[in-house]
Amino acid sequence: MATTPIPSDTFKLGFIGAGKMAESIARGVVNSGVLPPSRIFTAHLGAQRREAFQSFGVSVVDQNRQVVEECDVVIFSVKPQIVKDVVLQLRPKLTEKQLLVSVVAGTKLKDLQSRFIRVMPNTPAAVEMAASVISLGGTATEEDGELIERLFGAVGKAWRANEKLFDAITGLSGSGPAYIFLAIEALADGGVAAGLPRELAKGLAAQTVLGAASMAVNSGKHPAQLKDDVASPGGTTIAGIHELEKGGFRGTLINAVVAAAKRGHELSQS
């Protein structure tokens, strides 16, 4: 992709699009120490979004072309409906020396350029806990892939996968944080309904999800085994699980992932 390797210790990173995803990635990159904020750029005219990026030192300019002219690695993080037009508008400013990355849901590499690398991250990048999946474009080099793996690996965990899996990845890890936030809110509400103060319930719910996820990642056990370890015969946990099963909890989550994946596929066809 890039005609010469991009220096991994001095490159400048730019974001086309200054929304929540771009902010999450930028914050994670800064917090992890991969790049200082002085080497990160984005463009926006709105005061709120400018202030969000400037609050942790990122340079905010007025025009996207200024980002492209300044940066070695350019991440496109705009709405799926406009990404093709944005790429077309900026094409005269793009050079063979730049590494181009798309984190746009539902937009395939073939609809952009072969020079792109596609990444599906998620918003926990802001706290260096992202789940990101990378697919290289037709002309991307192994060196390009390694740089992007380092960039996104610094804000969480990164995998490589064939692009044909990206709709399903979008439905699971791309949209998944919203499902978990909803679950945390519901758990906290349950705690309040059972008599806990709101702040204590919210803290317990969030920490419980964090701890359970850590066990799922680090224990080496299947999630079903971890569940069984908590659910003693005739106890409180199995009574709660019974209610979840009656409400179709697992089936609802499966349906949510499939519905989001379907929507991602629909976006890629538009």
UniProtKB/TrEMBL annotation:
Residues of the Pyrroline-5-carboxylate reductase catalytic N-terminal domain: 12-106
Catalyzed reaction equations: L-proline + NAD(+) = (S)-1-pyrroline-5-carboxylate + NADH + 2 H(+); L-proline + NADP(+) = (S)-1-pyrroline-5-carboxylate + NADPH + 2 H(+)
Main location: cytoplasm
Gene Ontology MF terms in the entry: pyrroline-5-carboxylate reductase activity
Keywords: Amino-acid biosynthesis, Cytoplasm, NADP, Oxidoreductase, Proline biosynthesis
InterPro entries per the UniProt record, alphabetical: 6-PGluconate_DH-like_C_sf, NAD(P)-bd_dom_sf, P5C_Rdtase_cat_N, P5CR-like_CS, P5CR_dimer, Pyrroline-COOH_reductase
GO biological process: L-proline biosynthetic process
Amino acids binding NADP(+): 16-21
Pfam families, sorted: F420_oxidored, P5CR_dimer
Pyrroline-5-carboxylate reductase dimerisation domain location: 163-267
GO (cellular component) term, any one: cytoplasm
Binding site residues for NADPH: 64
EC number(s) per entry: 1.5.1.2
Compartment list: Cytoplasm
Pathway(s) where this gene product acts: Amino-acid biosynthesis; L-proline biosynthesis; L-proline from L-glutamate 5-semialdehyde: step 1/1
Record family assignment: Belongs to the pyrroline-5-carboxylate reductase family.
HAMAP family per the UniProt record, alphabetical: P5C_reductase
Record-given protein name: Pyrroline-5-carboxylate reductase
Annotated source species: Chenopodium quinoa
Lineage: Eukaryota, Viridiplantae, Streptophyta, Embryophyta, Tracheophyta
Gene name of this polypeptide: LOC110712844
